[in-house]
Amino acid sequence: MVATPVKGNRLTLQVADIATNTTAIRCLDWDRDRFDIEFGLQNGTTYNSFLIRGEKTALVDTSHEKFRDQYLSQLKQLIDPSEIDYLIISHTEPDHSGLVKDVLDLAQQAVVVGSKVAIQFLEGFVHQPFEREIVKTGSQLDLGSDHLLEFVNAPNLHWPDTMLTYDWGTQVLFTCDVFGMHYCSNDLLDTDLEAISPDYRFYYDCLMGPNARSVLSALKRMDKLGEIAKVANGHGPILSYNVEELINRYRTWSKNKTKAEKTVALFYVSDYGYSDRVSQSIAYGITKTGINVEMTDLLAADQQQVRELVEQSSAIVIGMPPTSGDKATEASATLGTIIASVSSKQAIGVFESYGEDDEPIDPIKTRFTDLGLKEVFPAIRITDTPRETTYKLCEEAGTDLGQWLQREKTVKQMKSLDSELDKAMGRLSGGLYIISAKKGDLKSAMLASWVAQASFDPPGISIAVAKDRAIEALMQVGDQFVLNILEEGNYQHLMKHFLKRFKPGADRFEGINTQTAEHGSPILTDALAYLECEVVRRMECSDHWIVYSKVTNGRVSKPESLTAVHHRKVGNHY
Ligand code: FEO
């Protein structure tokens, strides 16, 4: 048993055999900051690398550069690097490929195995010649001693370079980001399904959900492999006890997403500037509204597919590509195809990639608006290195676009139901509350009415939060927030303020008197009472999340007053 390290000493290594001749080197990053959108639950992460030893030896992925000394020293204890025959690259983001150059310096004989796109990306940052072997779905590599590897391309999960590797001998599937989660613990395997489930879901929603169609295509290709005994993912515990269950969750979630009536085509350049993270945040915001997103790399796009995708989409979102170099020519060709395929009924959204030589945003935006496309959110101009608040702004811009696309459906839904059932539902009454939350640099708030006490010990409450609410991302398991209870006869100004439509990234508390709770969330000074809460569990219920939270503190500031009550006539809207 390894003790959980104390804060301040939070980069540790775990090495363990997970199958015959197969060793996991797990780099445990206990305090990874939440600077990427998918790090919503603040449980740290791990970067998993694997060594397979047949007659030949293969290393599957490396690690983040912050583990350089620990990882390389461990690798050298396991094997003489000059004996590594293959370095298999599943995906080239720096958390897995940050040490590729270092490994190649030690293992110059190693042949780098990857998808065509992965090898191209590697050339961009390794800056030294290396032996390579480009593989695609169905390609095999025999390491001997019953380790026959077969590769499966999984483009757009979540980059176009992604590739899975299946070992027919051990039935281990190496998946890198796919089926991963940002969950750091000493558990090598998925022994605690309940504990990892919220992280597994949030990670899927942020990284894989915006590519749901690609997820289903990859699952179909995986069906041709043998039985999968273990999923050796790149983040979190390795899947062993719940392989079928957790793979099937991807299937179910992705099927649900692709059933959406409308699709947004989102174009970006995956290895340029911050284009991928910014576009993921926008995509996440869009999918929260029940709209499907198809993300496409401007540089890895088939022109015919681009044409078809654009024609069937309700909106187009484009990240600015670079103005110079090879990439510019390729991106410009795809941009031309997009422009030739759009129609005036569509919406358009544009954003900067914060690369060194982004295309200027206005001329491109104007080309679309001149063709009659509606600009739904203001062009996202990133003037500084993206931070949490930048990603939140992007997410909210995406939600605005999704809600705009759903507007007719929403109005129709409000008008269509006028049945007795609906009138009866309207007789359910609730109080009036403002939920306020702060997480890192992010703050948000929402007016709530579907709130109920849910337990005595510990004191607990349940709140129904619509999936497309901005604050929803700040109410993940373990997050803290304040429930402000409004006062009868003295709530109109607060209700009016928090009901208004805020621009993406706007400060919800500007002009509102607040104090600060111990954990940082704002407390509304004009509220009748407040409860400080911590999210314990979430249950998905159609268009809402039911969030169960324990109450850790509370105070009534006006003991003589009553709680404001919300009376409705019908139950088909708030
Ligand atoms: Fe874990 Fe996309 O890198």
CATH class of the largest domain: Alpha Beta
| CA-based gyration radius | 25 Å
Distance N terminus to C terminus?
51 Å
The tally of structural domains comes to 3
User: Which second-level CATH architecture of the largest domain applies?
Assistant: 4-Layer Sandwich
CATH topology title of the largest domain:
Metallo-beta-lactamase, Chain A
Residue share in β-strands: 25-35%
Helical content (DSSP H or I, runs of 4+): 25-40%
Gross geometry: globular
Q: Identify the strand order in the major beta sheet.
A: 1-2-3-4-5-6-7
Give start-end ranges of low-pLDDT stretches: 1-6
Q: What is the β-strand count?
A: 28
* Biggest sheet features: 7 strands, mixed
CATH superfamily of the largest domain: Ribonuclease Z/Hydroxyacylglutathione hydrolase-like
